[in-house]
Amino acid sequence: MEAAKKSFLVEDLKPGMIAAKEIRAEGKVLIAKGFPITEAVLHRLKEKYILTKIEVYSEDDAVLMNTTLEKQKTVKQIDEEFNRFSENIKYIFNNVFNVKISGIDEVRKFAKEIQDELDSTSAIIKNIVLYGSGDDAIYRHCVNVAALSCILGNWLELSDKDNNLLTYSAILHDFGKTKLKEDVLYKVDPLTTKEFSEIKNHTVLAYNSIRSVPYLDSSVSLGVLMHHERMDGSGYPFGIRDEQIHDFAKIIAIADVFDAINSDRVHKKKRRPFEALEIIKEESKGKLHYEFCNVFLSNIVNYYTGEKVLLSNGEECKIIQIDINDIARPLLFSKDGFLDLKKEKDIYIEKLLV
């Protein structure tokens, strides 16, 4: 039986009411279906939907929806699940995938497991912002990139078929790294030109393994092959540009960059939480696909809103509003009231808090 709904003018909405359908404005999600309307969301609704009626669940069903929300996984639970997924993908890469048909069947099952976790999108995003893939640049990284790619595919409103294929491609995007020498892949000292060429060859190694899988759509292997290509031709392995790059590769590239920036690697430490957003915004001006980046950023900032952060001065605050044009300097609420980082240039967000 479908839950009962009521329609209210925006001015009559109250915090705590549960949205009965996804509400979008200018290509971004203001609030997802089944999520409570907060003070911050209400403020944005009044800016965008002054005369529009908004559907919410009736009071009894709102209680039911809140119970459902409580069942969504926590950041810790997602971390445990994704660590388990990492072990699964390690087994697939190292033991199963050499047998072509059974290997891709395992990838399909694995993709379904990841997609089943997307009810907890908020916890997935927060987990990746907090921890990234740690120092696991292959298996946990592939799990994170697959989840982010699938989420972005949903935001781009890909068909179910295309989002499935995208997820397969994202799972396999760094499969080729398992064929590299470990002393090169995990080298602490700067790589030589020859060693860097070996690293870059991981896309071709993976492509050559995947393209011959029977009945597998070619978009999967092309996404793997091209995920390090860039719109301005500065990427690899071919230095192709713009529309020569497959859309799956453009999506995976955004997810790949986002997870890498939020992770510890041999040559670098993870960056502060808003730096990943800033870097993607900057790279959208020539290297990453501009429209896809815009959809990614416009939607993902909604999952930062309401989160607690630690500032560089040691103060704890809550994020109230994020300006996409000045993404690293949101409006915060502190113990002393509102704090606008646009006006406090010497203060920055150090980290998100669990």
UniProtKB/TrEMBL annotation:
Q: Which Pfam families match?
A: HD_5
List where the protein spans the membrane: none
Alphabetized SUPFAM superfamilies for the sequence: HD-domain/PDEase-like
Q: Which residues form the HD-GYP domain?
A: 116-312
Output the PANTHER family linked to this UniProt entry. CYCLIC DI-GMP PHOSPHODIESTERASE PA4108, CYCLIC DI-GMP PHOSPHODIESTERASE PA4108-RELATED
Q: Kindly provide the name given to this protein in its UniProt entry.
A: HD-GYP domain-containing protein
Tell me what organism the protein belongs to.
Clostridium paridis
